[in-house]
Task: inverse folding
């Protein structure tokens, strides 16, 4: 099973980036897929997650109104607008059982760096 992220990089504050994640090796239709991030010296935190065909994705308070997640069966995307320097982190794609902000069981991508400069 693999989750492969793409789309990270650098942006100025107020700019936009779009992350993509493609899953392979199993079916993901019944799994939550989402994005976590980890900044230096901080714990990994859940940014967004959703089930396929859900109309109520989860967003962390810090990104509500700025980030939008969408997905298909085996892909999940994160559109990040109005980026802030505090969004700088390594972003990880995840798929599986996500409860209370934690991936209880499932899979991680390798991570992609997002750097936002002021």
Result:
């Amino acid at each position: 099973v693999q989750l492969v992220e793409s789309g990270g990089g650098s942006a100025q504050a107020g700019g936009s980036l779009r992350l993509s994640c493609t899953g392979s090796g199993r079916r993901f239709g019944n799994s939550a897929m989402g994005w976590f991030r980890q900044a230096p010296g901080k714990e990994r935190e859940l940014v967004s997650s959703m089930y396929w065909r859900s109309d109520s994705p989860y967003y962390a308070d810090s990104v509500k109104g700025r980030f939008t997640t969408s997905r298909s069966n085996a892909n999940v995307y994160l559109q990040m607008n109005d980026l802030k320097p505090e969004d700088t982190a390594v972003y990880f794609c995840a798929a599986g059982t996500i409860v209370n902000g934690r991936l209880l069981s499932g899979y991680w991508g390798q991570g992609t760096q997002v750097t936002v400069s002021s």
About this structure: The CA atoms of residues 69 and 78 lie 5 Å apart. The longest strand covers residues 89-99.
